[in-house]
Specification:
With 390 residues, this protein is an alpha/beta fold. It has 2 domains: 118 residues, 3-Layer(aba) Sandwich (Rossmann fold); 257 residues, Arc Repressor Mutant, subunit A. It has 17 helices and 12 strands. Strands 2-3-4-1-5 form a 5-stranded parallel beta sheet, sandwiched between helices.
Length: 390
């Protein structure tokens, strides 16, 4: 097992809070990380039917069997336990007693915020970063950008060297057959699957609920409910536009991205790197990679996921704005392997129109070499294998 980028933050918070909650998608590595870092604590998986039944039917008795704490995996399967934990950690607030993991964001966070406010630290673990994959793979084994996007970042695929097409098919089937039945009553699973594939075709685009509903053949309220469901279960991420009070009209719709670009590729029917290379959505898929890398970096540092994009009424756009104090680092994302002067248009417009918010920026592109330009440096995507661009 490689050390995850979030590990130093996890260790620090476990030394300060009696409970640490580790949330994130299924197969993002939560269980592996929790068991590796807190192997001295008993481990209980609430996915196990007998364990879950005991925890639900007799929560006091179940927790009495964990006098020194425990790792409680998939806590949303027995959410009542969180309420009983409150009194236990109030009586003995020893840091690091309980480590909770969960993969259903809304339900888990709702319970935690109600019962454990001030008693737990919350971290969000997403699938591997590019840097984590590079460390696992080892030096001297570079992988092309197209294969990287096709494979995605779920740890299990990399740890066990699985075929990504089969592994992602299994992941999605499990999600539809299992998580959806727990989270919401989706009556027409076939139509929902079509809806998710239509979302993949809109990666990196502004989210138009009406158009998406028309294409999927479902009502506007259903589209909104299904998008919320995809967010809740860590399948998609909506990137909001950045607003200013200057009076300049900005786009209001968010942009749609998938938490794992490999899943987006699979949903689009891409099975080989050559198909990714020729696909008209290749630029959007690369944009997906960089945006979610920035989100992972924020979460791994214990920060919020407050990232934005910029687009004004004149069509000037910056793909990603990353908070840096009271200003923003502006990042333009281009999949092309050759730097084009047009790459700097949005950065130039943002710096000119929003000087009070401009904190510098850069271009991240699909080529191999860096270019230390005077205004906006250009970074190869390979730099992300060592961490976020400076």
């Amino acid at each position: 097992m490689i050390e995850r980028n979030i590990t130093p933050r996890l260790r620090r918070l476990a030394g300060l809070y009696p409970v640490v909650t580790l949330a994130g998608p299924r197969q993002s590595g939560k269980t592996t990380l929790a068991r590796a870092e807190f192997g001295h604590l008993p481990y209980h998986s609430l996915e196990d039917p007998d364990t879950r039944r005991f925890a639900i039917e007799d929560p006091r008795g179940f927790l009495a069997g964990c006098p020194d704490g425990a790792v409680l995996d998939e806590i949303q399967r027995a959410p009542e336990l969180v309420s009983y934990l409150q009194g236990i950690v109030d009586d003995d607030p020893t840091p690091g007693r309980f480590i909770l993991t969960g993969s259903q964001q809304f339900e888990l966070m709702n319970r935690v915020s109600q019962s454990l406010a001030g008693r737990t630290a919350v971290l969000r673990l997403l699938p591997f970063t590019l840097a984590e994959v590079a460390r696992l793979r080892g030096a001297g084994r570079p992988v092309s950008l197209d294969r990287t996007m096709l494979t995605g970042f779920y740890p299990r695929i990399h740890d066990r060297e699985l075929d990504p097409g089969q592994a992602l098919a299994d992941y999605f089937a499990t999600y539809v057959q299992r998580d959806l039945r727990q989270l919401a009553a989706v009556q027409d699973l076939q139509r929902f699957e079509r809806f998710v594939r239509l979302c993949a075709g809109r990666t990196g685009q502004l989210l138009n609920l009406s158009q998406l509903g028309n294409d999927a053949g479902v009502s506007h309220p259903t589209v909104r409910a299904w998008i919320d469901l995809l967010q809740t279960s860590h399948i998609v991420h909506l990137l909001p536009p950045w607003f200013t009070n200057s009076g300049k009209r900005l786009v209001k719709s968010p942009k749609l991205y998938f938490i794992d670009v490999g899943l987006a590729c699979w949903l689009l029917g891409l099975r080989h790197p050559e198909q990714v290379e020729r696909d008209p959505l290749r630029g959007a898929l690369f944009e997906n990679v960089v945006v979610i890398e920035a989100l992972k970096d924020r979460f791994n540092a214990g920060e919020s996921g407050d990232l934005y994009f910029y687009r004004d009424s004149g069509g000037n756009e910056v793909d990603l704005l990353v908070p840096d104090g009271r200003r923003f680092r502006a990042i333009e994302i281009k999949a092309g392997a050759t730097v084009n002067p047009d790459y700097f248009r949005g950065l130039r417009a943002f710096a000119a129109h929003q000087p009070q918010a401009d904190g510098g920026g850069c271009v991240v592109y699909g080529g191999e070499g860096n270019q230390p330009r005077s205004d906006w440096p250009v970074f190869s995507w390979r730099c992300l294998e060592a961490g976020p661009p400076a």
